[in-house]
Amino acid sequence: MFNNLTKSLVSAVAVTVLGTTAFADNWRGWNIHADGYPNTVAMDAFAAALEEKTGGEITLQMFHGGTLGSQPDAVEQVRAGALEIGNFNLGPIGPIVPAANVVSLPFIFKDVPHMFRVLDSEGGAAIAAGMAEKGLVPLAWYDAGARSFYNGDKAINTPEDVVGMKVRVMNNDLFTGMIAELGGNPSPMAFAEVYQALKTGVVDGAENNWPSYESTGHFEVAGYYSLSQHLIIPECICINAATYEGLSDEMKAAVTEAAQESALMQRDLWAQREAASRKAVEAAGVVVNEVADKAPFQAAMGPVYEAYFGSNPDLRPLVELIQATE
Ligand code: GTR
Predict the structure, then answer these.
(1) Residue 35: how many CB atoms within 10 A of its CB?
(2) Helix (H, G, I), strand (E, B), or coil: what is residue 177?
(3) Distance CA 164, CA 179 (A)
(4) Cα separation, 141 vs 119, whole angstroms
(5) Is 245 exposed, middle or buried (0-12, 13-18, 19+ CB in 10 A)?
(6) Of ligand 1's atoms, which has the minimum distance to the CA of residue 211?
(7) Which pick of 92, 126, 245, 267 has the fewest CB atoms within 10 Å?
(8) Which residue has the CA at smallest separation from atom 13 of ligand 1?
(9) How many angstroms does the Cα of residue 89 sit away from the middle of ligand 1?
(10) DSSP type of residue 34
């Protein structure tokens, strides 16, 4: 905060004395993923495009690999303006922004194209507005595929297979509810801790998309991947709302354009990495289990939806809008 305050005082002085912004605005950005991951590559491209499109007035230093803290902490840092930019999954944002939590309802989207159609419609606008109200402006949406279960000792084909299993989830009541409704024991935990937890048996399983399952090495310690595809959650390039609102219209357009271009790149890289990750873990001996019937998993989610409506009765139309979107 002190740094930010100093920085804004300094630029204010620069503006008053010189009548122009003499100093570049140096932003800092958070990303959880490793080098070479689609998001990491695309966030670096965003940083480069930002500098180019703003004529060097804005620079962005990216901190990858979660070095600046866990995702829930980083969300708070961007909200508070201690960091300007974050590449966030909407899962950990949901507990702060009820409208954005709609994307974390299990089986809410039919597939990834359906998710993007919703995000590009009034549903997406409602989610973005809810986020902006809480200090996070989404500039563009990234693909994070579908999340499926993985664990060490058996394939999962029915909810009964989850009974008694300790399953790591991201911090969000919808995810703890989801595991509990399947009869498992949910264990919310930071992403960085999951490998050890799986390895030492602190948890029996976890759930994630192909690229995260592979890039984290989780497949080494949880060799059954069952394609339940129970969550399809988008990710964002998010900016601190006050930082964004403080920009001129021209700068806002440049920042948004850089983010949108980065998202197109990310979605392309994502498709390639999903296939490559699947190939890599299969080659390493992972058992990939096609879940023949997802309906029983879906049917068990009624109470999760009811709990969501219970705390957010006004968001029922948003859910219905998504369900009615082709
Ligand atoms: C990944 C996602 C991360 C993080 C992680 C997790 O798929 O890209 O932002 O949310 O899952 O499970 O914590």
Answers:
(1) 10
(2) helix
(3) 10
(4) 8
(5) exposed
(6) 7
(7) 245
(8) 191
(9) 6
(10) P
- In whole angstroms, give the CA distance from residue 203 to residue 6: 45
Give burial (CB, 10 Å; 0-12/13-18/19+) of 6.
Answer: exposed
pLDDT, tens digit (0-9, with 9 covering 90-100), for 151-190: 999 999 999 999 999 999 999 999 999 999 999 999 999 9
Tokens found for residue 217: 């090495």
Q: Which CATH architecture has domain 3-143+234-276?
A: 3-Layer(aba) Sandwich (3.40)
What residue ranges do the domains of the chain occupy?
Answer: 3-143+234-276, 147-231+279-314
Q: What is the pLDDT of residues 206-255, one digit of tens each?
A: 999 999 999 999 999 999 999 999 999 999 999 999 999 999 999 999 99
Q: Enter the tokens of residue 285.
A: 């001996």
Ranges of H-type helices in 185-248: 194-200, 210-215, 218-221, 241-245
Contacts of 17 (CB under 8 A, 6+ apart): none
Question: Which residues have C-beta within 8 Å of that of residue 300, sequence separation ≥ 6?
Answer: 159, 181, 182
CATH no. for 147-231+279-314: 3.40.190.170
Nearest CA to ligand 1 atom 10: 89
